[in-house]
Automatic annotation (TrEMBL):
Annotated Basic and acidic residues bias: 587-623, 641-650
TM annotation in the entry: 6-21, 33-52, 108-131, 151-170, 182-206, 383-401, 430-451, 471-492, 528-547
Protein name per its UniProtKB record: LMBR1 domain containing 2
Compartments where found: Membrane
Keywords: Coiled coil, Membrane, Transmembrane, Transmembrane helix
Organism (species): Sarcophilus harrisii (Tasmanian devil)
Coiled coil, from the record: 229-256
């Protein structure tokens, strides 16, 4: 099994990162370089989280083996026979763990993973962000724009690195070497990441248990969905209006720049990014037979077309995202309303108001029957969420306590360190790896989930169902690469596996060894890394009392709060929007059912009359008079059939009228959409 666990986790983590990226990105429409760069960034960060427990168990075994080799006289006094592969220390043998990784592999592995992730987050991904957001029409133009936009960005970090370099050079007790220079760069990156890490961690430690606890409250979820519907409708209307304005500008440019203009290729590129209905509309109004005249007409410059191209990409992406999110939110609202109705059902079978638009899998239909769905949604799921919320809250309390006490080595107050040291005494590697994995996995969930939840206006927003733009995907990859290394160092500090924290002369983990000795920057190793994580207590208190949400409400950004008048108004507005959409869908389904019934009724009568006519007709009996008679009858029959067919088509095309509508129109759906707008 030597190295097999490492290989299995490498493959598993790759498919996990690919699956999550598929949920947020669009593999068909987005550039392949954007997908590959984001996948690589996510993959490396997830890989660090999954492989680090193996590094911890391997390090504990190496420490045991080192202690056994350093005290052979003690080992000789212990009775029993052990193999040469299992040296003895104290009362327990040093059995090799099942996931043991041979010496020399982990240091090389961590160097490749760490420096690749740092190259991505500090150099490649910022450049690709500007490249993806650029509106240039050529690769050279996009590269030029990206370099100009990142000049200030790179200059700022070079200035910070120079400040660290000057500090080390001025200090007479330090001699600058290449390893120390690496340590300065690593310390600068980890300091930046730890600063952001504590902010995100303080939010996630409280919000994740609370969100699961509130998930058991059906009324709370339904009210929040109504609130989201009101906000999303406003954003959707704004996106449609913005798209109309941009398309109007594109139409003017399309009419002014003719087919033989030098910038016509740029206009065609812009038109390809527009929605199909706008392309067809502009194509009908285009007259390519008119030549352009530079002397009498004013034409837009290439710079203005680049700006317009960038606006088109942004507006189309935003419009498509709001449309998809609106449909998904409607399904969620309808389902939560169905749950509220079925809670009082005496039959204990879940009944849906609307059938799913996509047919469900037969396997799901067989095992997830209406009865099982009722028991899960109306009875078991609330209790499951409550129990899960309590477990997550206990984990959060353990993390907060350990963050405030991990610097204490005598006595050991960090609960993570206590658990690992108890397992280390018995060399229970399975328990060590499970405890390490659950601990770092919970820390990662608290941090990464916050990255997926936060939204910086419309510049950064991770939207599921393939609606995340390239800029946000690349930005999330940057954040993950900057947050994961300090997250792992913080975890090793909580478990006292970092010698800088434990102050013990023991073999460090392979991950800690590539970070170098932080003694070069003592004020960071002994000050910032120790005391700054304690601020997580203040952040948790602020998150518990929703101070950030209240501040955003005061600034005019509506947030869901139960004791706020603005929230109540938006909930009522969202409830009315959902009610209108529900009526509209019900009328559509009723109209489709009526058309289906008419088609089945008259279609069957037509088939029966045709079969009876063919049955009573004898093709062998033919004379002149009968032929004339049959011709006249067939002519009459064809005339009747054509009349009947026209009548059936009219009945099929007829739309059922809604006499309950406020205004009588030919199309009740147009009347309803008019009231909705």
């Amino acid at each position: 099994m030597s190295g097999a666990a490492l290989g299995l986790e490498i493959v598993f983590v790759f498919f996990l990162a690919l699956l999550i990226l598929h949920r947020y990105g669009d593999f068909k429409k987005q550039h392949r370089l954007v997908i590959v760069a984001t996948l690589l960034a996510w993959y490396l960060c997830f890989l660090i989280v999954f492989i680090l427990p193996l590094d911890v168990s391997t390090t504990i075994y190496n420490r045991c083996k080192q202690a056994a080799n350093s005290s052979p006289s003690e080992n000789n006094n212990i009775t029993g026979s052990y193999s040469a592969a299992a040296p003895v220390t104290g009362k327990h043998p040093c059995f090799k763990p099942w996931s043991y990784i041979p010496d020399g592999i982990m240091p090389i592995f961590w160097r490749v993973v760490y420096w690749t992730s740092q190259f991505l987050t500090w150099i490649l991904l910022p450049f690709m962000q500007s490249y993806a957001r650029s509106g240039g029409f050529s690769i050279t133009g996009k590269i030029k724009t990206a370099l100009i936009e990142n000049a200030i960005y790179y200059g700022t970090y070079l200035l910070i690195f120079g400040a660290f370099l000057i500090y080390v050079a001025v200090n007479p007790n330090l001699h600058l070497e290449w390893n120390q220079l690496q340590t300065i760069g690593i310390a600068a990156a980890n300091t930046w990441g730890l600063f952001l890490l504590v902010l995100l961690l303080g939010y996630g430690l409280v919000e994740i248990p609370r969100s699961h606890w509130n998930g058991a409250k059906r009324g709370y979820l339904l009210m929040k969905t109504y609130f989201k519907a009101a906000k999303l409708m406003t954003e959707k209307a704004d996106a449609e209006e913005n798209l109309e304005d941009i398309m109007e500008e594109v139409r003017k440019v399309n009419e002014s720049i003719k087919y033989n203009h030098p910038l016509r290729k740029c206009v065609d590129t812009i038109l390809k990014k527009c929605p199909t209905e706008y392309q067809e509309k502009m194509g009908r109004n285009m007259d390519d037979y008119e030549d352009f005249d530079e002397k009498h007409n004013t034409y837009p410059s290439e710079k203005s077309l680049v700006k317009l191209h960038k606006q088109v990409i942004y507006s189309v992406q935003r419009h498509r995202r709001t449309q998809v999110q609106w449909r998904i939110l409607l399904e969620q609202a309808f389902y939560l309303e169905d749950v509220a109705k079925n809670e009082t059902s005496a039959t204990r079978q879940f009944v849906h108001t609307f059938q799913p638009q996509e047919p469900e899998n037969r396997f799901i239909q067989y095992f997830y029957s209406p009865t099982i769905e009722w028991y899960w949604e109306c009875l078991l799921r609330p209790w499951f969420y409550r129990i899960l919320a309590v477990v997550l809250a206990i984990f959060s309390v353990i993390v907060v306590w350990s963050e405030c006490t991990f610097f204490s080595t005598k006595p050991v107050l960090s609960l993570f360190a206590v658990f690992i040291q108890l397992a280390e005494r018995t060399y229970n590697y399975i328990y060590i790896e499970i405890a390490c994995f659950l601990s770092i996995f919970f820390l990662s969930i608290c941090v990464y989930s916050t990255v997926f939840r936060i939204r910086v206006f419309n510049y950064y927003y991770l939207a599921s169902h393939h609606q995340t733009d390239a800029y946000s995907l690349l930005f999330s990859g940057m954040l993950f690469c900057r947050l994961t290394p300090p997250l792992c160092l913080n975890f090793l500090g909580l478990t006292h596996m970092d010698s800088t924290i434990s102050h013990q002369d023991t073999q460090p983990t392979a991950y800690t060894s590539i970070m170098g000795s932080m003694k070069v920057l003592s004020f960071i190793a002994d000050g910032f890394y120790i005391y700054y994580p304690m601020l997580v207590v203040i952040l948790c208190i602020a998150t518990y009392f929703s101070l950030g949400t209240r501040c955003l409400n005061l600034l005019g950004f509506q947030q869901f709060m139960g004791d706020n008048d603005m929230t109540s108004d938006l909930v009522d507005e969202g409830k009315e929007l959902i009610r209108r959409e529900k009526r509209k869908r019900q009328r559509q389904e009723e109209g489709e059912n009526r058309r289906r019934e008419w088609k089945e009724r008259y279609g069957n009568n037509r088939e029966e009359s045709t079969r009876n006519r063919n049955f009573h007709t004898d093709p062998k009996e033919s004379n002149y008079s009968e032929t004339n008679t049959s011709r006249s009858v067939s002519k009459y029959t064809r005339s009747n059939n054509r009349t009947e067919r026209d009548r059936i088509e009219l009945l099929q095309d007829a739309e059922p009228l809604d006499f309950n509508a406020e205004t009588f129109t030919d199309d009740p759906l147009e009347s309803e959409s008019g009231r909705l707008s």
